[in-house]
Amino acid sequence: MAQTAEAPKWVGKASAKVPGVLADTVWALLQDFGALYKWIPNLDSSDIIEGELGQLGCVRLNAGPPIPGSEVGSHSKEKLIAMDPVQRSLSYQVLDNNIGFNYYVGTITVSPDGDDACTIDWSFEAEPMLAWTHEQIVEYVGLEVETMAKRMAEALKAE
Q: How far is CA 56 from CA 38, 52, 89, in A?
């Protein structure tokens, strides 16, 4: 009997520094699994639709403006699959979407970076896609984490 090899997964990572903000402060914002829309510009909402906020297995529905070439708004349904407050890390899996992901797991981690800063690392594993290249996904994640870091720094400075 012939064995079939599993298709190779795409992996990638992007990071962004948040100057002047401690890792625990940024983590307090990120662990709110239903507040992603506050930090990502292409999201209009991010609502918990199953389970309890912050509990493993809870599911959020992200909604955004239409994707290019479509009149339908973008959406992704994501499940919280791991959360480690000590390591300031969470992982989620995309369950359903109209963006083109068949399989996608993302992990976001916040680490101290010197005495008065932190770094947000966003890594992913995904099945190859028809509509995107690996480089496009890495670039997209990089833009998202840079924007997230900037918006968080601005929000915390305003407090």
A: 21, 8, 13
- Using a CB cutoff of 8 Å and minimum separation of 24, what contacts does 31-36 make? 31/83, 31/85, 31/90, 33/58, 33/60, 33/80, 33/90, 33/92, 34/60, 36/60, 36/62
Locate 113 and state its tokens: 């970076």
What is the model's pTM? 0.90
State which amino acid sits at residue 145.
V
Side chain identity at 125, as an amino acid letter? E
- Asked whether the beta carbons of 38 and 150 are under 8 A apart, the reply is no
Q: What is the pLDDT of residues 49-88, one digit of tens each?
A: 999 998 999 999 999 998 777 788 899 999 999 999 999 9
What CA–CA distance (Å, rounded) separates 78 from 46? Answer: 10
DSSP 62-107: EEEEEPTT-SSEEEEEEEEEEEETTTTEEEEEEEEESSS-SSEEEE
